[in-house]
Specification:
- By secondary structure, this protein is α/β, with parallel strands linked by helices.
- It has two domains: about 5-55, Orthogonal Bundle (Helicase, Ruva Protein, domain 3); about 75-200, Dna Topoisomerase Vi A Subunit, Chain: A, domain 2 (3-Layer(aba) Sandwich), CATH 3.40.1360.
- The protein contains eight helices and seven strands, in the order αααββαβαβαβαβαβ.
- It has a five-stranded mixed beta sheet.
- Strand 5 (about 140), helix 7 and strand 6 (about 165-170) form a beta-alpha-beta unit.
Length: about 200
């Protein structure tokens, strides 16, 4: 990397935190912000700072929110008896864009991966059975990604909810094996939501 000044070097290093951004892309971004888009850079810095200070996990579903309880959890229009389990906030956005789901969510912020040291408690799965029981949830929709880890996570959740008066379903048609929900179009997700299937007996 071309060294210009310590401040520029730190900015380039910081930009590489973003997914898919390497040294060259980060250098181009930094130079753009410093050479001709300083107002935009200042606005970006302010927005990032505000978001970091104000946005946190919803105390109920773990979605991102500025309030203690997010808009989805607090909305009277959402069905509290219908709960969708997703891996990330990106998945919530993807499903919401389909317009086919009227329930609430529980965001895992990951998936089970013993090789990486990610266990059930790291995903908040210890909170899930009591939450389902307390809310009287009638259906849990497993919308983890159709990867090996996502399927293992869905299976673990299904087994942890055995014995409860809750139907456990899995999104089905339209989502490609090995795919990520955030990259699937809304029509495909809508089909998957409508075609979900029950898990287990």
């Amino acid at each position: 990397m071309t060294r210009i000044s310590p401040s520029v070097d730190r900015l380039v290093d910081a930009l590489q935190f973003l997914p898919g951004v390497g040294p060259k892309s980060a250098t181009r971004m930094a130079l753009l912000m410093l050479q001709g888009e300083r107002a935009g850079a200042e606005r970006l810095a302010k927005c990032i700072q505000e978001a970091v200070e104000l946005v946190h996990a919803c105390s109920v579903c773990r979605n991102l929110s500025e309030a203690e309880v997010c808009e989805i959890c607090s909305s009277p229009k959402r069905d509290p008896k219908l709960l969708c389990i997703v891996e990330s906030v990106s998945d919530v956005i993807a499903i919401e864009s389909s317009g086919q789901f009227s329930g609430r969510y529980f965001v895992l912020h990951g998936r089970l991966s013993p090789i990486d040291g990610v266990g059930p408690s790291d995903l908040g799965l210890d909170r899930l059975p009591p939450l389902v029981a307390e809310r009287g949830v009638k259906e849990v929709v497993l919308a983890t990604n159709p990867t090996i880890e996502g399927e293992a996570t869905a299976q673990f959740i299904s087994e942890s909810l055995e014995g409860q008066a809750t139907a456990v379903t899995r999104i089905a048609h339209g989502v490609p094996i090995g795919g990520e929900l955030e990259y699937v179009d809304g029509g495909t997700i809508a089909h998957a939501i409508r075609g979900r299937v029950r898990v287990g007996s």
